[in-house]
Amino acid sequence: MSGAALDLTLADIEAARARLGDRIHETPLVTAHSLSRAGCELRLKCENLQKVGAFKARGALNHLLQLSLGRRARGVSTYSSGNHGAALAWAARELGVAATIFVPEDIPVGKRAAIEGYGGRVIVAGRTSRDRKQACEADAARRDCAIVPPFDDPWIVAGQGTCGLELLEQAPDVRRVLVPVGGGGLLAGIALAVRSRRADVEVIGVEPDAAASMSAALRAGAPVEIDVGSTIADGLKPVQVGVLNYAVASRLVARVITVSDAQIRAAMRLLIERCKLVVEPSGAATVAAWLALDDAAAGGVTVAVLSGGNVDCDRLVALLA
């Protein structure tokens, strides 16, 4: 996989953008005036308004489009905490492909409903990313179907990187980009896209302090498994970041910041009250990080990627109560 990381280039991301075309949204970039400070402007890249309500549509469709018709005919499968599963189910429906999604026991009700609503077959497998990955791999081997990984895959990373190309064009004066980190596919894709075109832009990862797998990998010098604690950011808690994603991030990402659940809740509330944007906990982590940056570290234009908006109403009320 390290070889794949070295082979992955800006050209792959540009090719993914051409391949995706108008099948996905070019999501808006909006200025959060009420969250900005003097000399420190915050802009929001609204991937919560993407197809399926999350950036994951980019990578899932890019991967699926590159499978042969023969491979598609046997169906596809994946393992996901929610958004990637919904994205693959949607992409598969668009192309007439059967999709099976392995999910955790504690998957939010709304995310499971979304997967099933797009036509995906849901199989519950344990509570950790390791549990569902192992179950998916065993089933795919029996059925000889393709696995579309949630993050540690060059086609997935290239698809997620198209978000970076868009935000550079929308904010040519950007100084730094805040990106949520789960498995690291979005961070790797955006870092590669942004730093290839603008080496002066700082790319910063953001992860929950209870599931800081990229921070652990950077300290260890390689991806390592961690004990994931409890966090409301259900999309940001794989037990280990992707090998490919770590290889890219370790070269191109300036640093990784961790945030608490309390900080994420506060960010979600501000996004609703001041920006009129519904964002799930994982997507609000970047705004939580922004609020924690001091003025010296936040000068100029910062873009915070809001990675998704898939949170059902009952859970939203409970989170903000």
Q: What's the alpha carbon Rg, rounded to whole Å? A: 18 Å
Query: Given the structure, what is the number of helices?
Result: 15
What percentage of amino acids are in beta strands? 15-25%
How many beta strands in the DSSP annotation? 10
- Helix fraction, binned, reads 40-55%
The sequence of SSEs as H and E is: HHEEHHEHEHEHEHEHEHHEHHHEH
Class by SSE composition: alpha/beta
The parts where pLDDT drops under 50 for at least 5 residues are 1-5
If strands are numbered along the chain, what order do they take across the biggest sheet?
A: 1-2-10-7-8-9
CATH level-3 fold name of the largest domain: Rossmann fold
Mean pLDDT: 95
End-to-end gap: 44 Å
Query: Which architecture name of the largest domain does CATH use?
Result: 3-Layer(aba) Sandwich
Shape: globular
Instruction: Give the number of domains.
Output: 2
What this model shows, in words?
This protein is of the alpha/beta class. It folds into two domains: 221 residues, Rossmann fold (3-Layer(aba) Sandwich); 91 residues, Rossmann fold (3-Layer(aba) Sandwich), CATH 3.40.50. Helix content is 49%, strand content 16%. It contains 15 helices and ten strands. A six-stranded mixed beta sheet has the order 1-2-10-7-8-9, sandwiched between helices. A four-stranded parallel beta sheet has the order 5-4-3-6, with helices on both faces. Strand 7, helix 9 and strand 8 form a beta-alpha-beta unit. Helix 5 runs parallel beside helix 6.
Brief overview, please?
Helix content is 49%, strand content 16%. The protein has 321 residues and is of the alpha/beta class.
